[in-house]
Amino acid sequence: MRRDHDIVLFGATGFTGGLTARYLAGRLPAGARWALAGRDRGKLEDVRERVAAAAPGSPVPDLLVADVADPASVRRLAASARAVASTVGPYAVHGEPLVAACAAEGTDYLDLCGEPEFVDRMYAEHHAAAVGSGARIVHACGFDSVPHDLGALFTVQRLPEGVPLHVEGFVRAQGAPSGGTLHSLVGAFAEPGRALAAARRRRALEGTVPGRRVRVDRRGLPRTRLARGWTLPLPTLDPRVVVRSAAASERYGPDFTYGHYAAFRRPVSAVAAAAGAGGLLAAARVPALRDRLLALRAPGEGPGDAELAAGWFTVHFAGRGGGRRVYTRVSGPDPGYLGTAVMLAESALCLVHDDLPPTRGQVTTATAMGDALIARLRAAGFGFDVLDPAGA
Question: Is pTM, for the whole model, over 0.90?
Answer without folding.
Answer: yes
